């Protein structure tokens, strides 16, 4: 608040006597005037500073629309007006940023020298290969390396089928965005038509975890499709989850991750095996880190994908969504299977996956009809899933059976339950045999409910997807004896 003179002061200043010095009177008046002027000066100063800041900022970062429509005055009128051009956006997830350019005949020619990469190979059925690639990507996350994903092989299908790229099944751009990290395919790195055989040193995990094997896990992907001549170095024994236990083959993520760093790599180098083509012996590559097989890898316990804390699922697997094209093909197959008319919405459904065929090897002498879960056993599980969905306020009447069973009598029992079966023949004719598998797994993962076969990794992943993507209800039926699923 401004200072106000007392009545005595006002009187003294207005009726000063000749004995009062003029300096005192002038000082008092000046003091009061300064009190009044100070707020005005401060306001004007703030306004001036604000104006200067705005002008300075607009000179450094002019608004594109204003600058483009109003020419800037310059001393030289012959010069064209300057226009602000937005710089191109830098996307670290763009594969072109992770490589020197398009695929090259030699993969090394396309690697950026300042970046590090990681890769591995597949050697199992398709679902296990999916899990292997998820493990690879997760290992890339914790080692700060860029995963390079190979192709899918028709391991449990007709061997004459062509290979399938990862990105034909999974939405790779979406995966990159959800991970916030780059992920590459080998076909983006090396030209698929190249016949140049390149040398590469890799870690041999298989021999370190499998007590009765004296060689790495062999995969035709690297040698025949990527034209790589591999020289393997046995990984240290400490990578094995349970040392000395012959009945488990798991390594751990972080024990393998240590080999991605210079000190542990150097400390664990032993004489490498000779490669099969060029007969060279190379230590594990430092820029393109590679392992022979990453299916049997966990953080805490064997078969960790069965747990809700599985890091490979939580940080990678759940983000591996289907491509839009694959979803559209599966959606059409569902509508045709359920007989949905044009324009009508697709109703919710429950999918069953009954895995048979190769599981007969696990029956251990029990007759097949007693070993596999009966249709009535599966029907009880379906009823339980329906009831749980009903408690959530979701009514589901349609049930789709997916199975590798060939017995017509078994399928007749399925039909008698009122359950539906996808026309695989039509899918094969339209899209090829690979897509009978792909359509099944998309349908399994897209229902409101799912009932699967205990011990099947295909059922396991379908269960995880339904629960995570759709907040659905799932169950698995046990098998092996007639009473295995009693509960």
UniProtKB/TrEMBL annotation:
Keyword terms: Membrane, Transmembrane, Transmembrane helix
Residues annotated as transmembrane: 37-57
Top-level taxon of origin: Eukaryota
Protein name (database record): Uncharacterized protein
Source organism: Hohenbuehelia grisea
